[in-house]
Amino acid sequence: MYSEIASNKRRSIIFVGVFFVLWLAIGAACGLIFRAVEHPAQMNATGAYVSTSYGWSPVVVGVVIGAFLAIAGIAYSLTSGAALVLRVSGAQPADPAQFKQLHDVVEALALGEGLPKPAVYVIDDPSPNAFATGISPNKAAITFTTGLLSIMNREEIEGVASHEMSHIKNHDIRLLLVVSTMIGMAALLASVLWRSALFSNMGRNRQGGQIVIVLFAAGLMLAIVGIVFGPLIRLALSRRRESLADASGVELTRNPAGLLSALKKLQTNDKPFKAMNHSTAAMCIDDPLQHHETWYHRLYDTHPPIEERIAVLEKIASGGSV
User: Fold this and answer.
1) Which residues are known catalytic residues?
2) Same domain, residue pair 154 and 69
3) What is the pLDDT of residues 48-63, one digit of tens each?
4) How much is the pTM?
């Protein structure tokens, strides 16, 4: 298990590097496209206008812009990414008086792990779910929906909280936070570029039309990152981390029954989690996008099938090894 935690830390660095190189490549590709389509006319010694080239300057400029955007995105994910996730999901700090049992459970588990107590948040949503976010155990938060709190007893809430506490201990919440933020940034920029290209007046002249081509190309490459490449990276990261968090949670509580019973209740859930989307669903204990979908959706599932997770916990509860 400790080797898996170390692996999560290494993968955080590797995937941040992968995204950085990917943004540099997009910048370089846009520069190459601009270089290919734009040939300014200059007057030669005889007074005639001839087509020239910008040389490699557009590629250099594209790489610099890509590097700036990548650094800004990574810095934002590490400084404000967790706050953004909590804000867009509608999470509110859990009142210590109203949610005293919840605070007591989280505090006891944090003491058991030797970690600082995470901030505790609640989302007013009937769909039962929970997730952890943050860049480190010192800056972590665990969020529960009111739907989950309404259907689970203390033992089951402890099981869910232990699963999320394990994500914090295993340092994989930072990894998903960075990846999800960069994916969301790519999708947002793609939308902005496409809108700029479609609704601008630049296409009315030759030079403007060439800029529109570059904007469309940049938007297409960013869309591929946000829609195809990014989710595949999340897929590679997430499935193993969920199984690890289940096992780590049971190790923390020494009671597989709580998490097992909680997962069985989550298995029957058919209420959509309105506050979650494809970028943040990977953080949840139960993938809110997975239920009642056709087989091809499983190609992008960020969680193992919940019935498989239940089977593993039942094996642990019966004294078997996994």
Assistant:
1) 164
2) no
3) 555 566 678 888 988 9
4) 0.79
